[in-house]
Amino acid sequence: MEETKKKPLRMNGTSLEGRDFSNMNLEGADFSFSSLEGINFDGSNLRGAKIRFASLEKATFRNADLTNADLSFSSLTDADMTGAKIEGANFSFSSQGKSFKWQDFKLIGLIQSQSWIGTLIAIIIGALMLYGTSAIIYFTLEILYTSNPVQVQLNQYLIVQNVVCGVIVVLITQNMAIWLDAMIEKVLLRHLTLSTVVTVVFFGINVGMYYGFGHKIFRAMAAQSPQQARQNGVWFWYAIGPLIIANVFYYLNRQGRQLSTKISEQEYQLLNLEKLKTRAELDALQARINPHFLYNALNSIASLVHEDPDKAEEMTLLLSKLFRYTTGRKNNDYFDSIENELEMVQTYLQVEKVRFGDRLQFEVEVTNQKLNRLPVPKFILQPIVENAIKHGISKLADQGKIIVKIYEDNGWLHLCVHDNGPLFSDTMGAGYGIRSIQDKLKLLYGEDATIELHNDPVKSVNISIRKAAIEASEEKAS
Fold it and tell me: Which of 167, 170, 338, 455 has the most crowded Cβ, counting Cβ within 10 A?
């Protein structure tokens, strides 16, 4: 029976403060909108988990796997992520401050922190938005349903005035934001400068609109309703709105740019860390000459020194050539041409042929000579050929043969190694040589490369790499 696929855990909108979820498999789990203060996720598998809009103060993620997890808009104050894997994780708009300080005031972080200060700010902003929306609806209805033509003209004038001032104030703020940050060091002076400019522009617009056509409407309104005209507030109170809008927009603009810069720096650091990690893994996977091969080769040379000095000299030169290839440093340490790879493999096989004699025959075939120039991962064929000798040819009493074939088919490059030794066992794919090649291909090409072991129709190891991925790696290398 097939194992039933486990559904991801869904606990969104729950309160789980202080719970212990350590060392659990929570892949794809959904903890969005949950209160998770002090929760213990140490060592847990949280790959692809959704922990958005969550409160994670003092939560611990030590050695947890957060690959591709989504922690956006979450509060991570004092969260411990020592040793956690965070490749591909999303921390957008997440607050990670140690404690609240007025000089570190962050509006977005406070609103989504679920603290009483954030809740109060959210209430004030919500109330202002509702008040402004209600004012728009009120004036719109007044224009539509008021029968008094003078009142209609006044409402229309006020709407046009507010819209024009709002648009200009926002444009001024956006255009001055970068200049203010570059030219003025103190934040308070920036806001004062912006406020001064907005005030001057606001009064300039209003004076121009008033003397252009507004004064006639106000005079008509005063003549029609003298009492209502006297109840209007003092004119300079109306300058408060544009000042608030300008300073709030400037603050949000500045915080947004700082956040974008911070995220960009974090992404850059993550990319660098990933690059260093990949390089370290590739260095660890880079094939080296097997010590047992060296031991056997040296023993063969020692035995040939007296029996066949010419053969001993030939084998010594071949071994020297092989080691020059394995220890030589080039501009690109991870790629080499197919031609050079095949030369290295042929040298390796010639050394082994001295040891095995006529029991070993080999053949190298490239269907199209243009393929010789393509770059492939360095040492990609030698471990496979070594396995063919160790697990195949060495087991035969009769003559063994190894065929290395390179060809292209449907946009894929195929590197095949055939041998006539015993068939692969069920556990052959778990060997270090095959696993190291699998890991190397995955690091360099992702899903654009595979390695397969076949016993039918002929015994072979087949490496397939998409040519587009090879060309992309060539461009990166250049």
Answer: 338
Strand partners, 416: 405, 462
Contact 100, 111 (CB under 8 A): no
CA distance 29 to 39: 15
Beta pairing, strands 360-366 & 400-409: parallel
Tell me how far apart the alpha carbons of residues 275 and 284 are, in angstroms, rounded to a whole number: 14
Burial 151-181 (b: 16+ CB within 10 A, else e): bbbbbebbbebbeebeebbeebbeebbeebb
Taking the C-alpha atoms of residue 29 and residue 152, their distance in angstroms, rounded to an integer, is: 57
Tens of each residue's pLDDT in the chain, 478 residues: 334 445 677 776 677 888 888 888 888 988 887 888 899 998 899 999 999 888 888 899 988 999 999 888 888 888 888 888 888 888 876 766 443 343 344 555 555 555 556 567 667 766 777 767 777 787 777 777 777 888 788 778 878 888 888 888 888 888 888 788 778 888 889 889 988 998 898 888 888 888 888 878 878 877 777 665 555 555 667 778 888 888 887 877 776 666 555 545 555 555 555 655 666 666 655 655 667 677 777 887 888 888 888 888 888 888 888 887 776 655 456 788 999 889 989 988 988 888 788 889 999 999 999 999 999 988 888 888 888 888 888 888 889 999 999 999 999 999 999 999 888 876 655 566 777 788 888 878 888 999 999 888 889 999 999 998 888 776 655 5
State the distance between the two ends of the chain, measured CA to CA, in whole angstroms: 51
pTM of the model: 0.44
Q: Please choose, from the candidates 350, 287, 295, 357, the residue with its C-alpha nearest in 3D space to the C-alpha of residue 321.
A: 350
User: What residue type is assigned to position 187 of the chain?
Assistant: V
Phi, psi of 56, deg, nearest 5:
-120, 30
Question: What is d(CA 273, CA 439) in angstroms, rounded to the nearest whole number?
Answer: 18
Q: Report d(CA 417, CA 407) in Å as an integer.
A: 12
